[in-house]
Request: fold
Amino acid sequence: MTSLPAIQRFESSTQVRIYRIPCEVFPNFIGYVYVVLGAGEPTLIDTGSGYGDSTKHVLDGIQAVHDDFNEPITREDIKRIIITHGHIDHFGGLVHLPKNSQAKIGIHTLDRRVITNYEERVVVTNRLLRFFIQQAGVPSELQAQLIQYFNFSKKHTQSFPVDFPLSDGQEMDGMRFIHTPGHCPGMVCIAIGNILLSADHILEKTSPHQSPETITRHMGLHHYLESLDKVSRMGGFDVALGGHEGPIHNVYQRIGEIRRGHMRKLDRVRGIIQNAPDPLTTFEIAKAMFRDAKDFHLLLAIEEAAAHVEYLYEHGELAVSNIDEVEIEDNPPLRYRLV
Reply:
């Protein structure tokens, strides 16, 4: 049984109380939801995954805010739920929570259909992912396995109505929404005074996972780096609270670290291609970058490598060497060389 971190209380410069509640979103993987008090109606930011004990952890955490911090709130008092982005470890609990509240649901417009048309989204994404892994040059014997890894957590939730959209720059009861696409199309960070709820856009230790825009629009490294720069230009954040890992007390330094990490990965891709005797597929580049990646982590490695390959290709640094093959075949692997 995974031991959960303690609930933490933060207070913004605008006197808003923010409670950081841990939940096990997947086996041995901790995520955080937030109860926001003093910014209009009692608000829950994200819901956990709905997988395993995730929802129980969320509901127990709300009760602990009442019992341990003497806040006059119960789960029934939550009147608003904000979903920071359309990844299942942040919205999967929606299907369970409404049994205990009449909360209105909000999410950015670019991720709205992930929730309202969930079953459709799974089918469409599976098709796009199959096309992607073929184009990346994944061996045929691995392709079905990678699709299976992608779908392992997709069956325990369902479509759910959204009550109101979120948009960039929108303000609501002292919360300001900042659209930060890249890790997810509809990702929003939430500014509350001097505190930034950074979701999965900025994490304490990990560089948030990147996937190419060839799978999903408004993702990709180009969008992500632009979104990092967007937040870095906004002054006044003393702490960022992410969807995973610990609080970030050096927000702008951390943004610089993440950006430099991606520059190193881009250099790594350049070096791998330059030192190879022949042009390489994305799968071959991923295997060179992440030698120990296996199972689900291999799928993540291929997507991460592809995001960096795509960035270099978009910026004119790479070319497809087998263009004649691409012209006559349905979906052959793309082989890249330096320009």
User: Anything to note?
Assistant: The chain has a mean pLDDT of 95. DSSP finds ten helices and 14 strands in the chain. The CA atoms of residues 2 and 28 lie 6 Å apart. The first helix runs from residue 54 to 69.
